[in-house]
Specification:
The chain has 347 residues and is an all-alpha fold. The protein has one domain: Mitochondrial carrier domain (Mitochondrial carrier fold, Alpha/alpha barrel), CATH 1.50.40. 68% of the residues lie in helices and 0% in strands. Helix 3 runs parallel beside helix 13 and helix 13 packs across helix 14. The longest helix has 35 residues. The protein starts with a helix and ends in a 6-residue tail after the last helix. It comes from Cryptolaemus montrouzieri. InterPro entries: MCP_dom_sf, MCP_transmembrane, SLC25A3/Pic2/Mir1-like.
């Protein structure tokens, strides 16, 4: 299925004649909908770009950018994540972030704060590959399915659908790498079988899919709003450094919302990993409403910073690799004409 999506995403219509004049004509194709009126299509490499927008090579680079953004950032915040999880599952012992660090250092030393960094790095690198790479694939594919005008009018739903689809597949590797160290794999396989790796997959989806939907959709729309209402000049007039500052700001805002919507499910997943044999519902009942929201502030700080850095690294990678970076969506000319004919104001 994924190979067919990639294959479809790299294709374009063959029915379009190449203009014989030097006048720039918007190229028809799969990837025109969110970049209406501009010549961004998987037909030729634009001047200054290293690859075609929507090509297999482009999606491959997006996946590599996801590897770097997720692998590096999640590994860097392992100590904070470890303390946050301990606050969630044992608030009597770990009373606050500062206290959690103090107790962990006293009992386990500095090495205790780095516990689990290896499976975290490899697991989140693979997840980043799927999350960012497939998001770009699904965004292009769904754009083609619903058409140019609908892709603009319902772009928030487009971002939500594409990110949810990407996260669904990205989470499948997660229980193997991120929740269990490699030395535990044979024992888990022997005692519980393959199901032992995936017993927390459903609550993981409950946490990660809303998280990723917010992460991508909120980021995309925040970037759009920042350029429209905050940045004093069009994106085309901004330097690459200024654009990356906007990326970081939009990423942090998206991260705050990500933390809030996914925190209860994150607490349940932490509890399930502590107590074998429990179900998600049983864990939620034990935690109670107050327990479900325990550790929210450190999670907001962690996820906000994490998400901002991920988007910064991902966008900086695109800049370094000279990848196409389409500007915020514009209303298609066909839709402008329809609204003008109906006497409606252009949004």
């Amino acid at each position: 299925m994924l190979l067919s999506l990639l294959s479809k995403a790299s294709c374009q219509s063959q029915d379009v004649a190449i203009p014989s004049t030097s006048q720039e004509v918007p190229k028809m194709g799969l990837v025109q909908s969110l970049t209406a009126g501009r010549t961004i299509a998987a037909a030729s490499v634009a001047e200054g770009d290293s690859c075609e927008f929507g090509s297999l090579y482009y999606f491959g680079l997006c996946g590599l950018g996801g590897v770097l953004s997720c692998g590096i950032t999640h590994t860097a915040v392992v100590p904070l994540d470890l303390v946050k999880c301990r606050i969630q599952v044992d608030p009597a012992k770990y009373k606050s972030v500062f206290n959690g660090f103090k107790v962990t250092l006293a009992e386990e030393g500095t090495k205790g704060l780095a516990k689990g960094w290896a499976p975290t790095f490899f697991g989140y690198s693979i997840q980043g590959l799927c999350k960012f790479g497939l998001y770009e694939v699904f965004k292009v594919w769904y754009t083609d399915l619903i058409g140019e005008e609908n892709a603009y009018l319902y772009r928030t739903w487009l971002y939500l659908s594409a990110s949810a689809s990407a996260e669904f597949f990205a989470d499948i590797d997660h229980p193997w790498f991120c929740k269990h160290p490699p030395e535990a794999w044979p024992r888990i396989m022997r005692e519980e079988g393959v199901n032992g790796f995936y017993k927390s997959l459903v609550p993981l989806w409950m946490r990660q899919i809303p998280y990723t939907m917010m992460k991508f959709a909120c980021f995309e729309r925040t970037v759009e709003l920042l350029y429209k209402y905050v940045v004093p000049k069009p994106r085309a007039d901004c330097s690459k450094g200024e654009q990356l500052v906007v990326t970081f700001a939009a990423g942090y805002i998206a991260g705050v919302f990500c933390a809030v919507v996914s925190h209860p499910a994150d607490t349940v997943v932490s509890k399930l990993n502590q107590e074998k044999g429990s179900t998600a519902l049983e864990a939620a009942k034990k935690l109670g409403m107050a327990g479900l929201w325990k550790g929210l502030m450190p999670r907001i700080v962690m996820i906000g910073t994490l998400t901002a850095l991920q988007w910064f690294i991902y966008d900086a990678f695109k800049v370094a690799m000279r990848m196409p970076r389409p500007p915020p969506p514009e209303m298609p000319e066909s839709l402008k004409k329809k609204l003008a004919a109906e006497g409606k104001e252009l949004a």
